[in-house]
Amino acid sequence: MAEVEGSALIAQSIQREGIETLFGLAGGPIQDIMGFAPHFGVRPIGVRHEQAATFAAAAYGYVRNQVGVAVLAAGPAVSNGVTGAHVAYDNCFPLVILGGSGPQRGRYTGTFQETENVPMFKGITKMAVQVESTARIPEYMAMAFRKARTGRPGPVYLDLPSDVIQNGVDEESVRWPSNYYTDAPPGGNPDQVRRAAELLLNAERPMMIVGKGVRWSEPTAELRELIESLGMPYIASPMGRGFIPDDHLLNLGAARSAIMGNADVVLVAGSRLNWMFEFGRRFPPDAKIIHIDIEAEEIGFNRAVDVGIVGDARAVLGQILAELEGKTAGMRERAEEGPWLTSLRNQVEGNAGRIADRLNSDAKPILTHRLLHEVSQVFPRETIYSVDGQTTLATGRQVLQSYTPASRLNSGSNGCMGVGVPFAIGAKLARPDVPVVSVNGDCAFGFNAMEMETAVRCQLPIVFIINNNSGIVGGSLEAHMGLPEGYEERVATYTPDIRYDRILEAFGGYTENVTEPSEINAALQRAFQATQEGRVACVNVISDHMEVMPRSGSRGGSLMGYDR
Ligand code: ADP
Known about the structure:
Elements: E1 3-5, H1 6-16, E2 21-24, H2 31-36, E3 43-46, H3 50-64, E4 68-72, H4 76-80, H5 82-91, E5 95-101, H6 117-122, E6 127-130, H7 137-149, E7 155-161, H8 162-166, E8 168-170, H9 190-202, E9 206-210, H10 220-230, E10 234-236, H11 256-262, E11 265-269, E12 288-293, E13 307-310, H12 313-324, H13 331-337, H14 339-359, H15 368-378, E14 384-388, H16 390-399, E15 408-410, H17 420-430, E16 436-441, H18 442-448, H19 451-457, E17 463-468, H20 476-479, H21 501-507, E18 510-514, H22 520-532, E19 537-542
Parallel strand pairs: 2-3, 2-4, 4-5, 5-7, 6-7, 9-10, 9-11, 11-12, 12-13, 14-15, 14-16, 16-17, 17-19, 18-19
Antiparallel strand pairs: 1-8
Helix pairs in contact: 1-7, 3-5, 3-17, 9-12, 10-12, 15-16, 15-22
This protein binds adenosine-5'-diphosphate.
């Protein structure tokens, strides 16, 4: 009678879900899960901090369209991973976090790293429970994957007492769940679909918002067909970019305020009307809202809807297209010549003019616009960007384009600083075939800079760029914090001009340090070439520490501007 250990059952469950990579920092009691993983064809990536494990796993899942898996040792290792759950919850990312805890048999006796982990995750997961029996591990794992993946995606926490995962059970007695969720995407209510089609056909100033919720069914053809057949302009949320290539003529993201402020029919697909879209209040009060979301509770949130369609974005867009069939002849042509698109495009031109000088500026210290403009020139269209840090995000919104699905990762719905490096690691593992570039402000970079060692060790040729303006929003935040006159100790600025590239040098990567605007392009090209040869690269760019962001449209100019 062969026995199988709980840790092996976990590794096997991950394999059975079709997941090839997990992220963790080996330690008690979960080290054996990482050890068993390769026996089941799952690659364990050993990171340097548990926060990075949960971030990298979330990004891996997002880019690969799967559930991400992170394993955390007990005690502080679990609390280190909490922020990843928070990020996954707020961004609706499917993530399974497996956290170790002290033995069940010694509960409440003060065993090593005995912690009430489950309550820590309760408010930021779809489910947080303790696994109480070794034999039931496969069942709990299936439950976790189903919860994380279906409906609105999100994180799940399973707490694993050391004895539960170290115990063995008779292999014959293990029951493996199969077909534990449906692959059939839910379609929308046909009456609502018909009403949506009617509103769109009769709109004078229609618009669409594309959010990152479209990631999971990837309706690229449907989105495109819809905007093109109606001549309907659209904008995308930061991570909703790329599902329609950013250079599509109907992308009016650069006239965001004008489009949101004047539309008469707004179709929202896979996005929430939260702070990112100004709670839906920016739309005219009489604008008709059509909202497609897989989560019924999202519909009508913050703003009254005229048509709320609960369903999968791809399925519902397909239904709307079927309803529009044969009714849209000439609409695109009329829209192209009409006042709506013309006025929006004029607005885009005006906004572009406002930043044109900065894109090519030879100012020294280097401006973020110039740096990111060079980035956009050097890396190919299919590049996945992971963007982090306030100034870098605000400028990246204007300058870095996305052309392919799930190719843009950033600080996301809760503005989490520190995701830039681990997100890039997760993305590179998910898509080894495309370039991955991580662009970070120096503050954001500092959170997880050590993970560059993970990239070197695991042979993940990523370009890490540091927009090094020596502090939080350079020095401009500190200047406005109200510190006493003459106060000398730095609070929100750092030691000037740190050579962050030397960190990667210590790990054995390819490095560049850039201070001259004219040197950026060549340095980026050399770094890119190094990654083509399998090396990890880091480009430290000394940028303007008192840079003030120009306004684009009516946003982006405030000190606390953020990528929306
Ligand atoms: P963004 O920040 O890009 O605007 P959000 O994270 O605010 O996007 O919103 C994503 C939304 O997408 C969530 O409300 C989520 O319920 C929804 N969603 C997730 N999966 C699907 C899907 N398959 N079809 C439609 N909506 C989805």
